[in-house]
Amino acid sequence: METLAQLRDKRREFAELGVKLACVVQGDAEDAEELCGPYAMADVCVPDPLKKSYREFGLDRTTWMALVRPTKELMRRRKETQAAGFEINVRRSMKGTCDILLLPGAALVALGGKILWTHRGVNPADMPSADALLEIGRA
After folding, report:
1. Residue 39: is its pLDDT beyond 90?
2. With 19 labelled, which of 52, 63, 69, 131 sits at a CA distance of 20 to 30 A?
3. CA neighbours within 13 Å on the CB side: how many for 101?
4. Cα separation of 36 and 40, whole Å?
């Protein structure tokens, strides 16, 4: 949610670059609407309850131990996220379509589907900022 909020705040700058934002949600259409719909955080929100796109993108999974005994980096990010007003949605996390061990990712994809740039998270909080994505888009 934090990343989506950052992207929403920079949406006009992305649009000026001709970039459309898409969010793939590891859930059903209802989850996609809950995450993207009312906040207009992405141009396209794609439900992926089977997580096919995550596998094809090569995203790894973390371990339960990494969540239970997080690194200093992950603890720092959790504190920053909480201070910004974002919390884990336990109800959504416990749904059968959600894999809380799945690591995040981001990509810059050209029209036609050619992948120009990828980011595969190494911990649950490892997502590039909206500013970093803007710089990549400008390049």
Report:
1. no
2. 52
3. 9
4. 6
